[in-house]
Specification:
The protein is an alpha/beta fold. 31% of the residues lie in helices and 18% in strands. The strands form 8 sheets. Strands 5-4-18-17-16-6-7 form a 7-stranded mixed sheet, sandwiched between helices. A 6-stranded mixed sheet has the order 24-26-25-30-23-27. Helix 4 (134-147) packs parallel to helix 20 and helix 12 (285-292) crosses helix 13 (296-308).
Length: 722
């Protein structure tokens, strides 16, 4: 009754012209439910409220979500197309002039045609992102392969979720980031969380995590830093960056040796157990401790807790995935669930904390270099034929697979790629080894960037096309559970900005490929074609209509037809997606990080997020409150390490690796290992930590090793910041 009274009082305080638009946050994979407050008289968003009816966050919101609406009507919005007339100013904000859409489209079509005529179709490339709707992600893949007719397309999920995808595909035969809904989390008996600073990166999950402990369950956290969630953990496995594979093998060995393996499940539903059992024997607690730096008694206790728990969920994030063995790390932690049979039922399974808003859906429908809609493989003739029927092209017209994101920059440097269409991504901040990447961008013959702000990457563009924010369009995204949800339009686009799907359909006309896109007049038109294109694939969205999504509070894929309610829990029938229906327990030899500390570079550098910023910071660094809370990056240093280098709190230091250097203010904290330093990665230009990171790539996912490289620190003779 008190709650009803509260909400009634809130309603009485509303502006007379105010209406609420149900939607979801624009940021991380939680996709928290929210209501945007819209002044119908002025057609502007004026505020936000949490949605207490949404089952994932039930009224919880983080600092980013509370302020997300402020990006839509921000003064920094690009309102008209921009053309740079002086190529010598590439890499700066200078030299742009406003232009009409017709002039911008005509110039792009002319330049792209000239490049393809001279160097071939594949001289053009598309680099995209997964903070877009499924419909936009789908159409971007089609635009690259049908509109531009190029093989070179990849996306920023290669720097985020690709290792999780590779590990799940190898272990399960299918990639869905969670085998169970988030509403199961607080009901399990044990959460084993590896490489996730959950309290800062997915804070609206925390009430469920604390509930596990409040019910008498257990929390185990593997992380080099004593993050807020690690401080509350029953066991904190404080491993060296880049050693997760050894830790997972060590725990798996103890699970097997101490009788926690589920023999019936292993024998009937998996392959690879005996080989894996033999391989992990050497990973005794002592040997695992030697490799990871974690005390043997912590490893033993973690294995005991997880092994004894009736139900348990293994969860992980970029900490284990952004390594040159990220796929192995994912499969190694997944082995724990498979060996103990704690999967394929409610309250037990495996889940990953998705970093980007549509990190799941955005990787399923054609933005990856080797994938087509529905998680079809571009190397599979049958899959190609199915998609070609929807697109109206012949299989012979389908381009071959391209290369991964970082490898595209290598091809730009080699002049194999000379043109770029960039959208929904900011690789001039987010890619590794940025000195190299920025040089590659600057050397392009012609670059187009579609964005709503002039990002660090847009500074390298010849043409900038103004796009809309998430609140000015509609469509679906797929959250970290695998739940397809609906984003609703709250206001009309500002200035002359347009949705990315509309830009691509219109640009295709100028490129002479309009017949493949001219029928797409609305976002729902794209949605209908997208659902059809995914039909029959592993990631089958065909039955996930917008009406069903609204009715059911989202639809979990696969959802094959109108009568299919979707699949909240995966593998309930104990059938996996490999041809024999069995999961794969993977024998995974340990490999150290690509770059270990040495006399010249004695420290381990790792990177990550803070609660106030998102990805490259292109959006959040413009929001005053978020900028005030975290205005600049910093380097975390342990007190003993600081004393060794004679560094004081808030002094400035120079951080070095073999690839670059940058200056940061010091934050002295006991929450970091003595052999490790940490820098958040949301900042651009000379403050970007990715000037220092290493482009060592995972052999399967092609994920760069953002989480571990060798570094050195040097005190600067500068005064403290006042």
């Amino acid at each position: 009754m008190q709650r009803d009274k509260f909400f009634k009082e809130i309603e009485n305080l509303r502006h007379p012209n105010e209406t609420l638009v149900k939607t979801h946050c624009s940021y991380c994979g939680m996709q928290c439910g929210m209501n945007l407050r819209v002044n119908t008289k002025t057609n502007t968003i004026i505020g936000v409220e949490p949605r207490y009816d949404w089952p994932v966050n039930v009224g919880k919101m983080c600092p980013k979500g509370v302020t997300a609406y402020q990006q839509t009507n921000h003064d920094d919005r690009i309102l008209k197309p921009l053309i740079r007339d002086d190529a010598s100013l590439k890499g700066t904000k200078e030299g742009f002039r406003e232009a009409s859409w017709d002039e911008a489209y005509s110039l792009i079509a002319k330049k792209f045609a000239e490049l393809q005529s001279k160097y071939g179709k594949d001289t053009l490339s598309v680099f995209s992102g997964v903070s877009m709707t499924n419909e936009k992600c789908y159409l971007t893949g089609k635009f690259a392969r049908v509109g531009l007719q190029t093989r070179y397309i990849d996306y920023n999920g290669r720097f985020c979720m690709s290792s999780a995808a590779g590990g799940f595909l190898r272990s399960f035969g299918v990639d869905r980031g969670s085998t169970l809904p988030w509403t199961d989390l607080h009901e399990t008996d044990c959460l084993f969380i590896a490489g996730s600073n959950t309290a800062e990166c997915h804070p609206t999950s925390m009430f469920r995590i604390w509930a596990v402990q409040e019910r008498g369950g257990y929390l185990i956290v593997a992380d080099p830093r004593e993050t807020p969630i690690a401080r509350r953990a029953d066991v904190h496995l404080d491993l060296r960056p880049g050693t997760d594979l050894a830790l997972a093998n060590g725990i798996l060995n103890l699970l097997i040796q101490n009788g926690y393996a589920d023999e019936e499940f292993v024998n009937n539903h998996t392959n690879g157990f005996e080989e894996t059992k033999e391989l992990v024997k050497e990973f005794t607690p002592e040997y695992t401790s030697e490799l990871t730096g974690v005390a043997p008694e912590k490893i033993i206790r973690a294995a005991e807790i997880y092994g004894k728990a009736p139900n348990a969920i293994v969860m992980f994030a970029r900490g284990i995935e952004q390594q040159q063995k990220g796929v192995d790390n994912v499969s190694a932690y997944t082995n724990m669930a498979l060996v103990t049979g704690k999967i394929g039922r409610p309250k037990a399974g495996v889940a990953t904390f998705t970093g980007q808003g549509n990190g799941q859906g955005g990787r399923e429908h054609g933005q990856k270099s080797d994938l087509l809609p529905g998680y079809r493989k571009i190397t599979n003739p049958k899959h190609v034929e199915e998609v070609c029927k929807v697109w109206g092209i012949t299989p012979e017209e389908m381009p071959q697979p391209g290369v991964s994101a970082y490898e595209m920059f290598e091809l730009m440097e080699e002049k194999t790629i000379r043109g770029l269409y960039l959208l929904c991504s900011n690789p001039a901040v987010s890619a590794p080894n940025l000195n190299f990447v920025r040089k590659a961008l600057k050397g392009l013959d012609f670059m187009v960037c579609a964005d709503f702000y002039l990002s660090e990457s847009a500074e390298f563009a010849d043409v900038i096309l103004p796009t809309v924010t998430w609140s000015e369009d509609e469509g679906t995204v797929t959250n970290l559970e695998g739940r397809i949800i609906k984003i609703n339009k709250a206001q009309e686009p500002v200035g002359e900005s347009k949705p990315d799907w509309q830009i691509q359909a219109e640009l295709a006309e100028y490129l002479g490929r309009g017949k493949y896109f001219s029928h797409l007049k609305t976002a729902r038109d794209v949605a209908d074609e997208f659902r059809l294109a995914s039909k029959g694939g592993y990631a089958d969205y065909y039955g996930a209509t917008w009406d069903k999504i609204d009715k059911q509070d989202g639809v979990f894929w696969p959802c094959k037809d109108e009568n299919d309610p979707g699949t909240p829990h995966m593998f309930l029938d104990k059938k996996f997606y490999h041809p024999d229906g069995k999961a794969k327990i993977c024998a995974l030899p340990y490999r150290p990080p690509a770059e270990e500390p040495c006399a010249e570079y004695p420290l381990r550098l790792t990177t990550g997020r803070v609660v106030y910023h998102y990805l490259s910071g292109n959006q959040t660094r413009r929001i005053q409150f978020l900028r005030d809370m975290c205005p600049e990056p910093y380097v975390e240093v342990h007190p003993e390490t600081a004393a060794k280098y004679k560094i004081e709190h808030e002094e400035f230091v120079r951080l070095f690796t073999r690839r670059g250097e940058a200056d940061y203010k010091v934050k002295i904290t006991e929450a970091i290992r003595k052999d490790t330093v940490f820098v958040p990665y949301h900042f651009g230009h000379e403050k970007s930590i990715n000037l220092l990171t290493i482009p060592a790539l995972d052999p399967m996912s092609r994920m760069p090793e953002f989480k571990a490289c060798a570094a050195q620190i040097e005190k600067l003779e500068m005064k403290k910041v006042q």
